[in-house]
Write a structure and sequence with these properties.
This protein is an alpha/beta fold and 240 residues long. The protein has helices at 20-33, 48-63, 76-87, 110-125, 127-136, 140-153, 157-165, 172-175, 195-204, 215-220, 224-238; strands at residues 9-13, 38-41, 69-74, 92-98, 182-187, 208-213. It has two domains: 9-105 and 169-238, Rossmann fold; 110-164, no CATH class. It comes from Tomitella cavernea.
């Protein structure tokens, strides 16, 4: 019988520069398959991490005393999810952490550097010229996704990118204290989200598993993150 989780509420957290629309397409099928009947995809704002943590606080309150929630996050959304879970023991039934970008401080991270450069370009040139520059060096599907989400973020884009670039993520040592099963999804050919970071997360957590995908597969269908993430989280839960 497929593993499900006693957590009727799932919260989905987008990645840097992405939005709630992509998070829902990428991770809502997993949340539903794992037993959630209420799925909240959080729209990012300039106070990026605080906004994510407030949404998780609200969901935990809605779950009631002793209730637990499911969390799915992409990139910095995954990192914020694990951080919140570490601060909220006993409140998380499981986490899908897709495409984590770094551990600890962002120093030397290509993903953090890219976010900082984007914030600078948006502040200096505006959103549309920055989108044009991004499209020139991105696969078409990614250019389309980011152009849509960057326009939706509008005035919040530069601040959210700046916040992401300076974010101090959980370290492997901290992740080792996680009390919820962790299903990690790594992308084997994405330099901004190195697959070794995903594998480091899975090694660190005591109840975890990792699945891998390719950028091409993600471009064809974002819900590949759901299939890979649900499979990894179910394997992680069986190790308890």
């Amino acid at each position: 019988m497929p593993v499900t989780f006693d957590a009727p509420i799932a919260v989905l957290l987008p990645g840097t520069g992405s939005d709630d629309d992509f998070a829902r397409r990428a991770l809502a099928p997993a949340a539903a398959a794992l037993g959630a009947d209420r799925i909240i995809a959080v729209a990012p704002r300039s106070a990026l991490i605080d906004g994510y943590h407030h949404a998780l606080d609200d969901a935990a309150r809605a779950a009631g005393d002793g209730g637990r929630i499911l969390i799915g996050g992409v990139s910095i959304g995954a990192m914020a999810a694990v951080q919140w879970a570490l601060r909220s023991p006993g409140r998380v039934a499981g986490i899908i952490g897709a495409m984590p970008a770094w551990c600890g401080r962002p120093d030397g991270s290509a993903g953090a550097a890219s976010a900082a450069i984007t914030a600078q370009r948006v502040a200096a040139d505006g959103v549309e010229p920055t989108i044009a520059q991004m499209r020139a060096t991105s696969p078409r599907w990614l250019g389309d996704e980011l152009a849509r989400s960057w326009r939706a973020l509008g005035a919040d884009l530069a601040d959210s990118m700046r916040a992401a670039s300076a974010y101090v993520a959980p370290t492997p040592r901290q992740i080792s204290a996680l009390d919820a099963p962790l299903g990690v999804v790594g992308v084997v050919d994405d330099p901004l989200h190195p697959v070794e970071v995903a594998r480091a997360w899975a090694r660190a957590a005591h109840c975890s598993a990792v699945s891998t995908i390719t950028l091409d597969a993600l471009g064809v269908d974002p819900s590949v993150l759901s299939r890979a993430g649900a499979e990894a989280l179910r394997r992680a839960a069986r190790t308890r």
